[in-house]
């Protein structure tokens, strides 16, 4: 650990991630509140935030646990919600190729929405891959550490926050911050529109199955729109 | 199934699946060629999944009156515009929360 703290790139990564870590404080609190409300022990709540380490999966898991959904549904829903990690993994792979396997496997664990965005910016800035890797480790560690602190704080004192503050609304806002910048091409907008209409139209489905069905339908619609657009412009 | 056992099963299984998703192309399929169709579909995963995840958190169930979610819908649109322009999570969060609080306060004062 001391070796990393002495590394200027690790420290720069840690500091660069602080604004995003601050923005995730309400989200972490909400996750902690959700775990407590679902009847999780402190160890269970920490296990969820430290090992699963994904706000979307944690929220879905505690809501489905509280609703008494079967294990297979919880696992499937969390997996589908985490499909975007495949994309991040594919996009990060070329950048991490020069690093030793131990680094690749370790950094993969820290691959989150925010860390991914920051890492791509840092690797694209050029320079030594090891320095960029140390930067990624620093930023990923900052996010992970703050995520644990806010989840634990939410578990203990989250219910003291007045409902009038609408802290829950911070969760969709964090995802809006991620998704809105994508809306620049027509197939992306088609994918989002189909997924959005689908998830609301199928809201009556039990156990949040509308999320899986609408998400997959949106991906298919975006892909088809992409091929159609290509045909159209190739003419 | 016992509650604690179920929770730890979720932690273990989702933890492993999430890690496998994260490490997939970095290590497991590092030397494999991604099929064209899959690569194309990949581009639309974040937009579709995140939209499907977000909308139910903003729009109340169909049975509820539309007015109940109006402040959240307006705040979400403002936040989306800020995110589109700034790419900043912190600014998006601030814009969305301040809009929601202002609308809720206005509704409380005049509603």
How far apart the termini of chain B lie comes to 47 Å
- Number of alpha- plus pi-helical segments of chain B: 5
Q: Largest inter-chain interface?
A: A-B, 93 and 68 residues
* Tally of DSSP helical segments of chain A: 14
Query: Shape of chain A from CA axes?
Result: globular
Our estimate of the beta-strand percent of chain A is: under 5%
Beta fraction of chain B: under 5%
Helical content of chain A (DSSP H or I, runs of 4+): over 70%
Question: How far apart are the termini of chain A?
Answer: 58 Å
Shape of chain B: extended
Average predicted confidence as pLDDT of chain B: 89
Number of domains of chain A: 2
Task: Please bin the fraction of helical residues of chain B.
Answer: over 70%
The helix-and-strand class of chain B reads mainly alpha
Low-pLDDT segments of chain A: none
Overview of the structural elements:
- The complex is a heterodimer of chains A (235) and B (111).
- By secondary structure, chain A is mainly alpha-helical.
- Chain A has 2 domains: 2-163, no CATH class; 183-230, no CATH class.
- Chain A is built from 14 helices and no strands.
- Chain A has helices spanning 2-5, 8-16, 18-23, 25-37, 42-52, 55-66, 71-81, 84-96, 101-109, 113-124, 129-157, 170-179, 186-201, 209-234.
- Chain A is globular.
- The model of chain A has no long low-confidence stretch (mean pLDDT 93).
- By secondary structure, chain B is an all-alpha fold.
- Chain B has 2 domains: 1-32; 45-110, no CATH class.
- Helices cover 81% and strands 0% of the residues of chain B.
- Chain B is built from 5 helices and no strands.
- In chain B, helix 4 (66-86) packs antiparallel against helix 5 (89-110).
- At the A-B interface, helix 3, helix 5, helix 6, helix 7 and helix 8 of A face helix 1, helix 2, helix 3, helix 4 and helix 5 of B.
């Amino acid at each position: 650990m001391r070796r990393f703290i002495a590394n200027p790139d690790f420290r720069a990564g840690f500091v660069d991630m602080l604004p995003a870590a601050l923005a995730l404080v309400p989200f972490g609190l909400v996750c902690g509140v959700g775990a407590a409300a679902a009847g999780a022990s402190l160890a269970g709540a920490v296990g969820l935030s430290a090992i699963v380490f994904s706000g979307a999966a944690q929220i879905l898991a505690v809501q489905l646990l509280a609703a008494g959904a079967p294990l297979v549904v919880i696992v499937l829903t969390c997996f589908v919600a985490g499909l975007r990690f495949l994309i991040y993994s594919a996009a990060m792979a070329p950048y991490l190729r020069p690093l030793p396997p131990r680094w690749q496997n370790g950094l993969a664990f820290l691959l989150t929405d925010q860390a991914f965005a920051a890492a791509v910016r840092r690797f694209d800035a050029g320079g030594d891959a090891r320095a960029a890797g140390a930067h990624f480790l620093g930023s990923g560690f900052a996010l992970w550490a703050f995520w644990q602190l806010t989840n634990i704080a939410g578990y203990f004192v989250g219910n003291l926050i007045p409902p009038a503050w609408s802290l829950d609304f911070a969760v969709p806002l964090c995802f809006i911050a991620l998704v809105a910048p994508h809306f620049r091409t027509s197939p992306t907008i088609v994918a989002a529109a189909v997924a959005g209409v689908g998830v609301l139209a199928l809201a009556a489905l039990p156990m949040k199955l509308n999320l899986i069905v609408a998400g997959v339908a949106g991906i298919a619609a975006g892909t088809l729109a992409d091929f159609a657009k290509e045909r159209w412009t190739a003419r | 199934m016992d509650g604690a056992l179920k929770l730890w099963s979720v932690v273990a299984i989702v933890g492993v699946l999430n890690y496998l998703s994260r490490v997939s192309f970095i290590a497991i399929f590092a030397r494999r060629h991604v099929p064209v169709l899959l690569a194309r579909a990949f581009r639309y995963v974040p937009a579709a999944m995140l939209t499907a995840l977000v909308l139910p958190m903003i729009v109340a169930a169909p049975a509820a009156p539309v007015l109940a979610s109006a402040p959240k819908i307006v705040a979400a649109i403002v936040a989306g515009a800020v995110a589109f322009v700034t790419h900043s999570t912190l600014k998006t969060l601030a814009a969305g929360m301040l809009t929601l609080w202002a609308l809720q306060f206005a509704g409380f004062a005049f509603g």
